[in-house]
Design a protein that fits this description.
The chain is α+β, with helices and mostly antiparallel strands. 36% of the residues lie in helices and 17% in strands. The protein has a single domain, classed as Sandwich (Jelly Rolls). Bound molecules: fe (ii) ion. The site of fe (ii) ion has 4 residues, from loops.
């Protein structure tokens, strides 16, 4: 049902998110995305101490030709150290999805302090995040995840999500499933899962209250993806708190007035 306070496209996106629990959308600024990818390419070559003449796209899809599985975590941590020290990356990542985050979450936001980088080499099972919901590990259900990749993602190179109606069916009848292992639960729901098809230049926003995760990448290409959580600044927090896990990014002045208001003392 459309809401007259939202415009047409906003209503459509909100409806889609309410029905499915996720939306795939074109990122807002391809130049910015290219800038992020170029920066990470540069860091990678520095870390690997090598020169690669191929295009960036070819390097990212073929990272498994440059980094062995045993070296992957150390390599990833070195990239993350660069990411943490980059003064622009968090705001650049926000800019890629600002409109959609605004429609789905609001415009007064807290953003996760760390932008998480995931690297999935073909046939590597060492860094998988199997089926889960983030709420079970202390995240607030008011958060969303913004996910995008530096390569085209499809089939097992991507991530899967169990759409809202199917996730709710499981959660509403969880007494039937709570004793299942993660793998048993995966086998039970695998036919209803959606493998997100996300080309380079697109992103996903999803509710991490829904079941989601990854499997071994059975494609012949590597995946580089980012995920970062956003929530409405004043919505409830869970164990991932303001300051420690989240930082305010867009506090509006009226909220500052409200926050700083002191009741006058009468005596
Ligand atoms: Fe998750």
């Amino acid at each position: 049902m459309s809401n007259k306070f939202f415009d047409k496209q906003e209503n459509e996106v909100i409806q889609q998110f309410l029905e499915n629990g996720y939306v795939i959308f074109p990122l807002e600024d391809y130049h910015l995305l290219d800038k992020i990818r170029a920066q990470i390419f540069k860091w990678s070559l520095n870390i690997l101490q090598t020169q690669i003449d191929s295009k960036e796209e070819i390097f990212f899809n073929n990272t498994h030709h440059h980094v062995r599985v045993e070296e992957l975590n150390e390599f990833r941590l070195k990239i993350i150290a660069e990411i943490v020290n980059d003064p622009d990356l968090r705001s650049d990542i926000y800019s890629l999805a600002k409109t959609y985050i605004g429609w789905i979450v609001g415009n007064e936001l807290a953003m996760q302090r760390n932008c998480n980088l995931s690297l999935q080499l073909p046939h590597d099972d060492s860094s998988l995040l199997p089926l889960h919901t983030d709420v079970w590990s202390g995240n607030s259900p008011y958060e969303i995840v913004f996910w995008f990749s530096l390569v085209d993602c499809y089939r097992t190179k991507s991530i899967f999500i169990l759409p809202k109606p199917d996730s709710e069916k499981i959660l509403d009848n969880f007494h039937q499933y709570y004793h299942f292992s993660t793998e048993q639960l995966y086998q039970t729901i695998k036919h209803d899962l959606i493998w997100l098809e996300v080309p380079y230049g697109s992103g996903v926003i999803f509710s991490h209250t829904l079941f989601h995760g990854g499997r071994v990448n059975e494609e012949d290409e590597s995946r580089w993806s980012f995920n970062v959580r956003f929530k409405s600044l004043l919505s409830p927090y869970a164990m991932k708190e303001m300051g420690e896990s989240f930082l305010p990014i867009t506090i509006r002045p009226a909220t500052r007035f409200g926050y700083n208001y002191k009741k006058p003392k009468m005596q």
